[in-house]
Every structure is written in C-alpha cells, then in structure tokens.
Amino acid sequence: MEEEFMNLVIFSGNLAKDAKIVITSTGKQFCVTTLAIREDLRPEGKPAVFVDIIIWGERAVKLAKYLTKGKAISVTGRLELIKTQSNNTVYITPRVVVNKLEFLGRKNIESVTAAEDVKEEVSVEDTQTTEFASEEEVPF
C-alpha cells in the first residue's frame, strides 16, 4: 500500500523586506518577499531563519501593498526548494508558495482597515484556484 504525504507548512514571523511584484514572460503575476522566522524570542537567542514566500495571481497584486518590511504575518502553503548556482557553488533556498496569509500583531487602525479591504477584494475563489507556474517561468 502506497502512503500519501502532503506538502504543507505553516510559518509565522516578520517580513524582512517589502514585497515586490513580478510579471513572468507569459504575463502571469506574482509577488515575492522574505519572511524572518525566529525560534527564540530572546535577543540573545538563535538567529532568525529566512524563507522566501511567493503569492501568485491577482491576489498577489492586491496583497503586495500591505506586505511591508516588519509586518507580522502567518503563511500556510507548499514548501519548495529552489536550486541556484553561482561561482561553481550550488545554493538551495527554501520557498513557500502561499495558499493562505494572515496578518498578525498589534491591531492599529491602518492594519485593520488594510486587512478588511483585502478581504473584500480577494474572493474565496481567488484563494482556492491559484495557478502555479513551472519553475522555468520563474525568473530567479
């Protein structure tokens, strides 16, 4: 009997940089940014782990303006390992293809309003029918 496994990860942390919108050569849109994840909240604790996150489609364009450096978020998605080579050295970078994103942290008027606007703009269909491009289409 063959076992089935699910590739599902949940990470929470703070954005290490502002989201950047990218358009592929085939016209598909996505935004990419980096999430800093800390295992230990003490300043002298372990250093943060950095994971790239990618959001595809119209949802990416609508969310990108709210995904700014320092913002606390939680993401659920599929883990990918991206191989790149530079100077004869192979690097493997973890990346999460986001299915669900939540804003965390203190609720100030700006972030509550922004989150409500995004909820109104992004329908349930958008979050369930995200198209994933092949690795050849991603320009990094």
> Distance between the terminal alpha carbons, to the nearest Å?
38 Å
Task: Please write the string of helix (H) and strand (E) elements.
Answer: EEEEHEEHH
Content of β-strand: 35-45%
Number of E strands: 6
CATH superfamily: Nucleic acid-binding proteins
CATH architecture identity: Beta Barrel
The top level CATH class name: Mainly Beta
The largest sheet is: 5 strands, mixed, barrel
Number of helices: 3
Low-pLDDT windows of residues = 108-115, 120-134
Structural class of the secondary structure composition?
alpha+beta
Count up the domains.
Answer: 1
What is the radius of gyration? Answer: 16 Å
Write up this protein.
Residues 108-115 and 120-134 have low confidence and may be disordered. It is built from three helices and six strands, in the order ββββαββαα. 18% of the residues lie in helices and 41% in strands. With 140 residues, the chain is of the alpha+beta class. The chain starts with 8 loop residues before the first strand and ends in a 12-residue tail after the last helix. The chain has helices at 58-64, 109-121, 124-128; strands spanning 9-15, 20-23, 29-37, 49-56, 72-86, 89-103. The protein has a single domain (9-137), classed as Nucleic acid-binding proteins (OB fold (Dihydrolipoamide Acetyltransferase, E2P)).
Helices and strands in order:
Blueprint: E1 9-15, E2 20-23, E3 29-37, E4 49-56, H1 58-64, E5 72-86, E6 89-103, H2 109-121, H3 124-128
Parallel strand pairs: 4-6
Antiparallel strand pairs: 1-3, 1-5, 2-3, 3-4, 5-6
